[in-house]
Amino acid sequence: MENTVLIVEDNEINRALLMTILEDTYQVLEAENGQEALEILRNPKNSVSAVITDLIMPEMDGYQFLEVYSSSPEFANIPVIVSTSQSDSESEVKCLEYGAWDFIKKPYNAQIIRFRVKNVIERSELYALRKLRYQEQFDTLTGIYIQNMFINRTKKMLKENPDKDFMILHFDIYQFQVYNSVFGRREGDKLLCHIADMLRKMAECGTCMTYCRIEADAFCICAPAADNEMIQNIMDWFQKDFQVYQRDYNILANMGVYYVEDNTVSIPVMIDHAKLASKECKGNYIQNYHIYTEEIGKSIQEAQSIVSKMERAMKEEQFVLYLQPKYGLAKYKLRGAEVLIRWLTPEGMVSPGKFIPVFEKNGLIMKLDYYVWEQSCKLIRNWLDRGIKPFPISVNISRVSMYNPRIVEEIHELTVKYDVPPELFQLELTESAYTDNPESIKKAMQQLQEYGFKILMDDFGSGYSSLNVLKDISVDILKMDMKFMAAPGSENQRRSESIVANVIRLAKDLDLPVIAEGVEEKEQVEFLSSVGCEYVQGYYFARPMPVAEYEKLAFT
Ligand code: C2E
Ligand code: CA
Ligand code: CA
Fold first, then answer.
1. Which ligand has the nearest atom to the CA of 397?
2. By CB count within 10 A, which of 60, 156, 219, 447 is most buried?
3. Phi, psi dihedrals of residue 98, rounded to the nearest 5°
4. Are residues 355 and 276 in the same domain?
5. SS3 content of the chain, % helix, strand, coil (to 5)
6. DSSP string for 55-103
7. What pTM does this model have?
8. Number of structural domains, the chain?
9. Final residue of a domain: which of 262, 292, 322?
10. What is the per-residue pLDDT for 75?
11. How far is the CA of 472 from the centre of ligand 3 (A)?
12. What pLDDT was estimated at residue 462?
């Protein structure tokens, strides 16, 4: 294929001369100044192999052009030859500083020009080739192996040492993107290079070790198998080093360990296993490494199979609403219900405790929440159409759904669409959702309340900030989960009871009704009435039930 040379020169005669010299061998493009040249270069249709530029031109002169050129990585491999009539060394040095590859002098000597152009093109091709070779093996940022090379080398090492036991370590920085946004990308890159240096040091200490950068902040190591104590030592070594490296930030490393036991497992799968194990750390400072076990693999598989089944389940209406009644404690009268989702698969029922956390992780929960809200609105509409005067029902809002910027409109639009009075449609929001992003939630809650929805604070008392939260936001009803209290008869029961009594008193001061949920025992009921709790929900009174069953209980 013919190479393309770009001539940047304002003087028409010079351009024509250069054209005549080069057009037999190359395809030639022309620009009258630096600006035009950049436009031609940036056009992906023009694949330019070399540039010849004049220095003195209108609009954008040769120096300005070189300056832009040398700071644009996409031009890094396109050689530039400066054509000059000046022969002072000062301007030559300046050009070289800006990345010029060579010079040609005016008046033009055709032979010299042809040679110089040919030479720079060949040189740039050689660089490109070398760079490619390098990039096929090494990570350009840190200079250590990339994953493919790691896999090759590790395969070889395992083969050559059949009697040795090995382990694969997957190492990364907890919330590296936070570090990046605090200190900037450049510092982030520096930290990665520092980690690569530490791996080099580690490799110098022992024999038989391979390592690489897998991607972003993730590194992999294959080394002789070590016991828990040794692994902890490695992690301590990293943590101590990080404390010195960056005093203003707690850099936390997470590591997953996979022991190579079965040679039929491929290295990429081993890496995956180690990575899964490292996910178990979840930013824990004390347990900052985890060892891969079959259970970890299984639970991940389970999660994946749940996700893959979700779409179909939605279409086939495998998700059904159950209702758990709530009672007034004074007269044991039914006063409403909470909507709880159930997943009825052909293989049996999956409990929300299993699939809700999975859907929260991958965001599908937003879809599911919306589905539940819409079904609930339809249900209320159906009751009203049948002339029933229903009690309010409450739906759950996942903390993830609160990130949806349209949540207020969506809920409002649903109740308008089904003509449901907002006082019949209550919203349960967990306390932890509020602590996630207080400002936006506060606003959303206020707007919902302005539309007439009542907001229940779910799982009150389960987090650390319960009382603080109450100070900041206005909720309409507190739900206090008895599950978070000490079991009856246990050592801490008295303390628990005193907390419950005080929460109820405090709530009364704030005019907030309290629903105690998870009430299972008679003694709990007695205690709750003795301290003036108004509402209860729990197995002692009724379990979550299908809609038809609830209708019988509530409306007849
Ligand atoms: P939650 O909102 O705190 O719901 C109360 C849970 O406690 C329900 O579990 C309920 O069946 C259970 N429960 C009620 N009374 C008792 C009792 O006396 N003893 C015991 N041990 N448990 C009792 P479920 O239905 O398994 O739901 C678990 C969690 O899953 C819910 O906790 C909620 O966070 C979530 N969830 C359920 N349905 C939905 C939904 O439609 N949307 C969203 N976003 N989350 C839901
Ligand atoms: Ca709830
Ligand atoms: Ca709850």
1. 1
2. 219
3. -80, 5
4. no
5. 50, 20, 30
6. S--SSS-HHHHHHHHHT-GGGTTS-EEEEES---HHHHHHHHHTT--EE
7. 0.60
8. 3
9. 292
10. 86
11. 20
12. 73
